[in-house]
Amino acid sequence: MKAKGSDYLVFDTEAGVWRQNPEQIVRDEVEKHHWKHVAVTVLKDWRLYLMLVPMILVFLFWRYFPMYELLGSFKVEDNVKPVAERLFLGFSNFKALLTGSGTFSQYSTEFWQAMRNTFLLSFYGLCFGFPMPILLALFFNEIRGNISRSILQVLTYLPKFMSTVIMTSLIIMLIKGANSVLETEPGILAQLLQRLGLITEESANAGILRDPNYFRAIYQVTGIWETAGYDSIVFFAAIIAIAPTSYEAAQIDGANKWAQMRYVVLPSILSTIVIMLITRIGNMLSIGYEKVILLTENQGSNLLKTAQVISTYSWTKKADKPGIASAAEMLNNVVGMLLVIGANTIARKASNVSLY
Amino acid sequence: MKRKLEVSELIFRVISYLLLTVFALCCLYPFLYAVSASISGRAYVENGLIETEVTRERTDEQGNKVLDADGNPVMETVIVKERARLILLPKDVQLAAFSDMFKNDVFWNSYSNTLFLTVFGTVWSLVVAILGAYALSKKRLLFRKFFNFFLVFTMWFSAGIVPQYLNYVHTKEVFNGIGIMDDKWLVVIAMGMAAMNIILLRNTFENVPSEIEEAAIVDGATEMQVLRQVYIPMSKSTIATVALFFAVSRWNGYFWAAQMISSENEKPLQVFIRNKLNELSELEQIQIFELNHDYAPDSVIYSLIVCSIIPILVIYPFIQKYFAKGTNAGGVKE
Q1: With bands split at pLDDT 50, 70 and 90, how would you rate the model's confidence at A218?
Q2: pLDDT band at residue B116 under the 50/70/90 scheme
Q3: Residue spans of beta strands (DSSP E) within chain B
Q4: Cβ B46–A161 below 8 Å, yes or no?
């Protein structure tokens, strides 16, 4: 609330002078003691505040201090001096990345390619990866035996708990190409795909991971393998929360399975779906860098045409062009943050539920 | 009253069983293959071209037996080529890949480093998260909104990997400057904290009925006792879930451990696996390897993978029951 002049002084009509507002005197008194009050509360409750300290230190040192390094994006390229001592440059790094002005035109091309790849990987993830857990949850709901359902669920959650190194090692070895010197055949999955006619013999022999045309498909399919089962937990919880009477009522009305899905299940889990969808859209630009780096390392530079994402792009530039690298990350982060906040606002408006 | 299933329901159920079984098997297959490949002979893993020497009776073009002067069949030794690639079940079972690895000191070293990082890292993350979440769950905390924002902001805006890397480099310099040369401790303290897990815990703590806490305070319990004896026992499933997340992410941690730990004998298992994979993808290295071993270079990686996932598989069933409950407890705040 804004303070008005009349809050402080009132005109005393009898004496004909301005006097201090008596209410303001009380307010001033409270204000004077406010900080004392805060200090006393904190001191009395010092154990509670002490509990916060480790968390704050951890987040301050290793979440907030890196943001300070981002200031390097506004400064002259220099990988020796600390950020504070570098010369201020303004927005020229951003300009170079976005428009390719000056001597940096090749960075701009690479940046937009990485941006496009980031966006496409997330977009395909939204199209193919997002519906899978919902389908799985619907299917899990059909399994009657508790034990058989638990077994199936545990098996599908399993890949979620494996490290990226293990998952990518398996992927690399299962779809690797043939080697004529060592007389080895393509990996077992590459052979299977070739038998199924999904890939040609030449590409199976050359190794489909080295082929930029297949990277997005590989990324999505392995993504589903890794997370679909685990992500179905949330949807499954929403489905089993539906009262059995709703189904019974629908069945008495003669609804077949399709109608039950359409009129009972879908409306009940719609809010969960909306929330998850919005979270997913909000996280669109944060592609897991670890998986991309591990999949593309030693696979030839040709693959980077489709596999390079913003974070891996700036990772390759960190040594000689820290300013460009920070600027790329900054752009990615700012757009990402706008997406998260936008998604959260929409969620709040649409379903009265806030994600954070 | 049991009613008869409609045709559409029946079809859907059959499809569900079918597709789920297929999907679950697809999830499982790469791991089963890894186990089989780690204990199979080289040829079965690499190309399936199996050459075996067979002694048999010689036959002529018409398929008649060739007899010698005494009327006995003539024996011959030929090399029979068959294609028998390993698909699921192990063939030519041998444990050489494992036994060679168990003789390797670097392997044991990396394994113990991973154990170190997992145990200390999980405990550290859990203590920090529980204390912070407990304080944040208290309505009487001053600047509560600010502290929450402080936490949540890191979910909206993360600095990205390059600034994080530069920051870790500085931290490392500071750590080494004050005499802590073990980069392991830096990894334990600095990495693996996630705002989402703290929020999950905070939401669970907020749901603990305040009457119980008040009763405990009336009985003269201190803040720590309230936390230990009221809050922690009442939020077991969420804490178990969060602990699982922390432990798994520590066990699986690769990227920052690889970047930050410079000493060769402090590197964890995941880094060791990845280095082995890189090493054995070079042609020369494979040729040297194949001269000295009966098993495929891939079997080395597969056996390492098996060793790395066994601890998770052992703990997983015990903690699994908690987490469907724990995962749904928080996250979304009404």
Answers
A1: very high
A2: very high
A3: 49-57, 75-83
A4: no
- Cβ atoms B191, B120 nearer than 8 A: no
Sequence ranges of the domains in chain A: 5-85, 98-351
* Domain limits, chain B: 7-94, 104-279
Least CB-CB distance to A52: which of B19, B132, B223? B132
**Residue B130 pLDDT greater than 50, yes or no:** yes
Mutate to test the interface with A, among B10, B20, B322 (most CBs of A within 10 A): B20
Residue from A324, A315, A329 nearest A93 by CA: A324
Say whether pLDDT at B315 is over 80. yes
CB contacts < 8 A (A, B): 275
What is the Cβ-side half-sphere exposure of residue B223, based on CA atoms within 13 angstroms?
Answer: 12
Question: In this complex, do B158 and A63 lie within 8 Å of one another by their Cβ atoms?
Answer: yes
**Closest chain A residue to the Cα of B9, Cα to Cα:** A257
The answer for residues whose C-beta is within 8 angstroms of residue B175's C-beta and 6 or more apart is B183, B185, B186
Q: Tokens in use for A12?
A: 């005393």
Per-residue pLDDT band for A351 (boundaries 50, 70, 90) equals: low
pTM of the entire predicted model: 0.85
Domain A98-351: CATH class, spelled out: mainly alpha
Q: Does A46 touch chain B (CB under 8 A)?
A: no
Contact A289 B255 (CB under 8 A): yes
User: What was the ipTM of the complex prediction?
Assistant: 0.86
Cβ contacts of A182 on chain B, cutoff 8 Å = 46, 283, 286-287, 290
Q: Which stretches of chain A are assigned E, i.e. beta strand?
A: 9-12, 17-20
Give the pair of three-digit tokens for residue B111.
């394994």
CATH no. of B104-279: 1.10.3720.10
Of chain A, the percentage scoring pLDDT greater than 70 comes to 95
| 3-state class (DSSP) for residue B211 | helix
A322 contacts chain B (CB < 8 A)? yes
Residues of A in contact with B23 (CB under 8 A): 136, 156, 228-229
